[in-house]
UniProtKB/TrEMBL annotation:
Keywords: ATP-binding, Magnesium, Membrane, Metal-binding, Nucleotide-binding, Phosphoprotein, Translocase, Transmembrane, Transmembrane helix. It is a multi-pass membrane protein. This is Uncharacterized protein. InterPro entries: ATPase_P-typ_TM_dom_sf, P-type_TPase_V. One of its GO terms (cellular component) is membrane. GO terms for biological process: intracellular calcium ion homeostasis. GO terms for molecular function: ATP binding; ATPase-coupled monoatomic cation transmembrane transporter activity; metal ion binding; P-type transmembrane transporter activity; polyamine transmembrane transporter activity. The keyword Phosphoprotein applies. Its main location: membrane. It is found in: Membrane. The keyword Coiled coil does not apply. The lineage of its organism: Eukaryota, Metazoa, Ecdysozoa, Arthropoda, Hexapoda. It comes from the Eukaryota.
Amino acid sequence: MYMLFQQSWFQPIPDDVTEPQIVSWENLVLFTVSCYQYIILASVYSKGMPYRERLRTNYLFVLSAVSLTVFVTWLLIYPCKKMAELMELIATTPDEEEKFMFRVHMLIFPTLHLLIAVSIEAFISDQQWLKRCIQCLKRKSKPKNKYKRLLQQRNTFPWLNTIST
């Protein structure tokens, strides 16, 4: 949104408008960026059993993710007038160069999001060193289970052994 507000051609929706104005640049930016986020998060975090298969084995998921990415990119860059009306988006033509270049520059955000999400998944989420660090920081002083605490007390107080046997 910040990038949109910095554009010289951008006119925000006036505050005194009482009826909802759906077709706006704000909605275009929010819609397309959130679509990319959903696709990226579903693709990056789609591994594991039983239902989340790896991408190379889940052809239908890859097909749907690629087709959705192509469709959203088409909606962002250069939608036809009929599709823009149906999706309630702003249609621009390539002769409006500033607005067209803004749409092209909007592809930077999903690209960065994809790189960051893949990096986090590869270098942080799947690593054992992170789990060990968290376990080291969260050292339990005493067990949460009541029976384990009783067993621990039994070992520290030998006279409890004589009562229980």
